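Form 12-C: Joint structure prediction
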Amino acid sequence: MSISLDPSSEQQQILASVGRLLAEQFPVARLRGEQAAKATPAQSVVALAGIGALGLGLSEELGGAGFGLTEDMLLFVELGRQLMTPAVLATVLAARLAAECGRQDVVRSLLAGQQVVGLAQPLGPWSSSAQEQMVHLVDGANAELALLWSDAGMGLVSTSHLRLQTLSPMDRSVSLHRAMIEPAALQLWRPADQTRLQAQAQLLLSAQLLGMAQACCDMAVAYAKLRSQFGRPIGSFQAIKHRCADMAVRVEVLRAQLHLATLAQTRPMADADFQLAACRWLAVDHALANARSNIQIHGGIGFAAECDAHLYVLRAHLYDQLSGSRRAEGECLLAQRWADENQPVPIAPPSLTRSKE
Amino acid sequence: MHFEFSPDDLAFAEQARQWLRANKPEQPPPHSGMPARQFALAWQSELHRAGWAGLSWPKDYGGRGLSLERQILWHEESVKVGAPSPLNPTFVSLNHAGPTLIACGSEEQKAFHLPRILAGEVIWCQGFSEPDSGSDLASLKSSGRVEGDHLVVNGQKIWSSYADIADYQELLIRTEPDSQRHKGLSWVICDMKAPGITVRPIENMAGAHHFAQVFYDNVRIPLTQVVGALHDGWNVAMTTLSFERTTAAMALQLELSVKAERLAQWVLALPFDERSAAWRQQVAGLRAQAAALRALTYQSLFRSPATAFDGSMVRLYFAELSQRVHGMALELMGPLGADAQAFGSWTHDYLESFSETIAGGTAEIQRNIIGERILGLPRESVR
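Section 2 - Result
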């Protein structure tokens, strides 16, 4: 058997058990209302460390579970569904970074949940030669470390000496701070041209977006069956049904592309970069579209803060910006060659606008 | 999760590539009429002579019985070298009627028709839709009255592609008088040369004449031409439609990917300004969607066990993406697009793409199927 884009039965079993556990311990409702203040990133990181989830894709020598990027990707779909803190992504990436840098001690303490890692996003192009640069730190308020995710590379920095300026986040389920980071202060650093970490980060981020798109579809469909107006469930009306169908198609489309992009990374295939760029574009677009549709299908209650629906919109916007916006992604996607040498030479309209020049 | 072709598969692809390069017709296929018939039959007999016919058909019926992987590789190679698209006048015979006969036909029906289909000797058309029975196919009224060992057919069919150049038709008619909906229908092989048949070609919005209305005035069809059991035509028709989601659709999707790639090349060649920046974003999105269409198809084709209504998702996504890609092309052409000949067949293909969300189940019907059959949403109360 040579082609299958569906997880194996073993993979499905792992996912189902992790999914159940997450749904029990981390219902999305924890992120709104009075409970919200009690849900800390550290809780999530420690709980996931407890079940060995943080090192799922790392080798056993490193203290991981010995699976690979594929299993990590599948795990992150489940994490996305429950809107787990971005600190989990940062911690998993930090462990992978530490492993690449040969720092087994750091890997071990991260996988054990002894240190929590926030996610630092530079607000401009990162330059290793600059003095200090401004970043947004997501869920890093009480974290020991921050993962710097930049176009130029990935780094790990201690938060102890950072002066944090508290901001008011659009996504109120995370904390947001402004800080200055000096390249010289980075404890670990891998430049982009020497690592696949960026690609892995994009993949895991896309996986979370798929989980979110799926969760929104599930929520909307369940509500459409439950909610009755004009004497019948609103899901019987085509205006609602078709919206739900579109949500389901987006989920399947994104899942297919995510799985193919993952396989392209692990093989790796010649068009791995293209498949990933396509995946990332779809992930943000489809997660946002589903989050919006979910609110519309819920109607008035969907607009209320006491409903989970809006949390997915907020998080989708956060993730859109995390590694460059869709605009940057679009440029990246265009620049990728479709790695198919046998492709016929494009029949281009000879100079679209040049004739007007 | 895995994605790899075996060395043998790749050797097969190489063999296919070599042959296709050496033998594919240089001229683009004519759109309609006898030229379209001759072109399609010539290409099919060429494939047959070289052993490339019926790749998905079982060996017992003259096919190659190839694995899904190899069928896909064949279609990928065909698209890459620009070989004729499978959406040509032989589509119904190879992808609808043939597989239906294999699944439900009598030994005599198979022995007579299958070799002729494979060898590129005959064209088939479809006779399902009627003027008053489009999305609601089960309401069809064209009738076949049993008279001795014949059916006497009266009524009309519409949107029958290539009926004007076809030898046979897969005809769905009501054979049990006063039967309701799905009951009492029969799937019949209709000889298009039989007395009493009138074909009126219909010009479509692209100016092409590949579909037609067909009238039946006391057309006598021997009962031996009924496929499956008499009055069990609905089940046979559902078998037919299930074959629409074959690997042949893969070729159409790949053609669309190649088109999206062309758009990418176009916008990349433009000087960077505000207007082209917006286009770049749109084309980048189309490129991502075309990539995903391929992944979606792989996911659906190789799903085990197969999921019943996945095909509706692929069909819907393909149809609407096709319209977006062609629409984008037209936008990029700007005023030059007013000249229908300016950019090869782009303008024609754009106009043809309007049919994608109508033929073979409208986008609305596909969404109903997805909503009701996959998501389990309640049906809208009808009547």
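Section 3 - Comments
The mean pLDDT of chain B is 92. Chain B touches chain A through 72 residues (CB under 8 Å).
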